[in-house]
Amino acid sequence: MLAFSQPAFLVLMALLPISVFIAWPRLVRRASGRLPSSVSRPTLNRRVLMGLLVRLLLLTCIIFALAGMQIVTFNNKLSVAFLVDASDSVGATGRERAMAFVREAARSMRVDGNDQTAVIVFGDDAQVDRSLSAMRDVADPGVQIRSGGTNIESAIRLGLSVLPNDTARRLVLLSDGRQTAGDAQSAARLAKATGARLDVVTLPGVDGPDAAIERVDAPTRASIGQVIPLNVVVRSNVAQKAQLTVFSGADVASQSVVNLNAGQNEFVVKVNAAQAGFGAFRAQIVPERDAIPQNNTLAAPVIVGGAQRVLLVAQNPAETASLKPALAAAGLEFDEVTPAAMPAEIQSLASYQAVVMANVPARDLSDRTMLSIQSYVRDTGGGLAVIGGPNSYGVGGYFKTPLEETLPVEMQVKDPRRFPSVAMVVVMDKSGSMSVTENGVVKIRLAAEAAARVAELMNDQDELTVIGFDTQPVDVIGPFLGRDKSTSIPKILRMGPGGGGIYIFESLSEARKILSASDKQNKFVILLADGSDSERQEGARELVTQMRAEGIQLSVVSIGIGEDVPFLQTIAKLGEGRFHLTTRASNLPSIFTEEAALAQRNYIVEQPFFPSQGAISPILSEINAVPQLQGYVASSAKPAAQVVLKANETDPLLATWQYGLGRAVAFTSDATNRWAANWVTWPDFARFWAQAIRWTILERKDSPIQARVITRGGQSVIAATAPDTAAPDAGSSAVLTATILNSEGVSQTVTLAQTAPGEYEATAQMDAPGAYFVRVTGSAGDEAVISWARPYSQEYAPQVAAAPDMRAWAQAGGGAELSVPAQAFALNMPLAASRQELFPLLLALAALLLPFDVAVRRIAVGLRRAAAKVAAAPAPASGGTLEGLLKAKQRANARGAGDAVAPAEHAQPTLAQTIAKAQKAQEGEKKDAPPQAPSAPSGTAAELLKRKREKKE
Question: Which numeric CATH code is attached to 706-781?
Fold first, then answer.
């Protein structure tokens, strides 16, 4: 049968009779000839009739194509998509029951191939586990989905996309009905509107005794030392005992055993806000019987305000002994820790307004601690002041670390003329022990990274060789110059582990041979060996002594504590280098860069100098002059930094800058009697350091920006209100950015888009349950700081009956609740319609008819007009055109012989004048010649002439 997908276009069929009406006067005419008009009869013009028929057929094809003409055929094919809920609320039992239903239903498929089935597994997202197939065997699901939520809408929409339109279509939803995202009701209506049927099978959810924390109520802000009452609401479906614990960060703030009644229970727990900054109180319930452990924890964030407090970090208390009285005199409270005891969590650092590090090497800080310091300054607006010393900056291994990124100075000095040329050999242990992984990374990879950093720190004229050694030199890269390091570093990073133990004597002999051939001024060896697997020690002591006599210095790095450590310490001492013992391979990059900086010798500048002032800064307020210093660590100021004090024309002494939301200060000398003996006794010493540290502490002012976090469609949205005063320029809109910090210290930054005058929003990735710290900053410097807690997913909320929702969705989708698996393939649906679109065929036919339409109406008329012009044209002169022109000229001359001749006539006539005279003569002959009877034309020309005469009459 024929059908139309766009029948509204059929109204254009009214153009057909209109076309006939327009063509009718030309279609019907009276008979030609000499009959009187009173006896003439009407006839049909066959040419016009043919053109009209072609035009009508062309219009019909175009109208039918626009109306979507189709050939519709019906079949009994059936396609079924099973939507299997694999979320956590269904549990393993529910998933097994669902797959058993699907397998049993697939066995009832018809064997003639007219039935097909697909399987879609869904949770918080949906994926196709089995594409549409006529096979009757169904395997267990193999796709991975996010099981912490249930999005039935996405599963229905995906199911509709895999079902073909030329078969009857059925969706079978197997779920407990606990949707946490999407709109299943609207998706069910969509399925029905597209001709599909939605049937449901209700699965049981996870059941059993369960207790869940529904909410934790706490004030959003508190003062340091304040006792905060936390209201903890717990819901249990049975009466039982439980342990209720409240954590403040990683510490236990309160713990007690409570009795839970069936239903809602409320408990008030009092905790102390011990630290200022961003904190989160986390309540945890551990019941005797519990079916869903994911709903046992909930957090409440609190911003605790208090007096400004500074964290001092130093390995040796002497490094900060002079700073403490200065901070106390400035009214700044402080805590002091060693680098190993420094907090690694961003929340703990956020309780301080500034962090001061004095002569701290990078190897004493873990990677997580350095990343937390970076995030503390950049994302939370904290302050950082780093004081130098012989174990800091470049010689402290800061190169290519998060500390270098945070500070306003670079560890590498850009002027190579200041440094003597260096030849260096890095001997790395490639033995089997280097194939062990540390935090998921093979040790040899960390060692290769350390050697690559040494190459990066080299100047263009320096020389480096990297040797991978076990029982022999397996990998030898170099010698190569610093200017060629870009091609050698990838080779270093590709080094892999070998076998056996490292041969000390042979490896040092290889290094000595390479350095002996070098003409560089300074020669240096870094030996990386295993503390318990260093073999062939015989003769090594004597070899190192000879190397030192030849000007070759040796430093040793031992990985792990073992029986060979004393020997490695001895040869380092003989080589007049340094010995490093580490149990973490992650420290190797920092240790190697320390040694590379020391090998170049000029990174530590120990000579008296008077600092010179650079940029104007509040740090030097009311300070007119500074004393002499005895030394500093050379570095380079970053382009965006402000150099407040200079050690010389190129080296900064005191540099500052804004880093993200916070500020950082770098002082490359120290604060002890070693280099700053004159400063310690300087009257303005306390003022200088108080002003330097206070500069890093940003003063928080009242802000016109108001911010909040809302949940919309399962996503977390940061919404802010900012008046026009928050804009940088009058008449412009504010530019807002939000920095989000989670309880694990991971940060992210998003830009808020304007949604209305003064209203801004941005979607942020805050999907994991827990506490979040959000800072919204405006382009004019205003900011709003809020805290927000995301609860656990509703997937784990206390269970409620879901069967009524499932039946409602089935009714909206035109289906029912199935009780028998075979019902999934019951032929109780209308026959499927297969549609073949005729649109391309109709357009092709219209395109073919268009030339015929033009030909019938235009080409015939053109031919008739051409024939008429040929018949009406006069016959040419017998003698040809040129001969006729000459004769006409002679006759014209004869007629005008008696006329007076003007003087100009004696001039020779031009060709144009001759031709014009001849044409006039011909016209005169035509007028004088007697009229002749025209010859009787015949055929088409005669018909055209006859019609012309009739028209004139």
Answer: 2.60.40
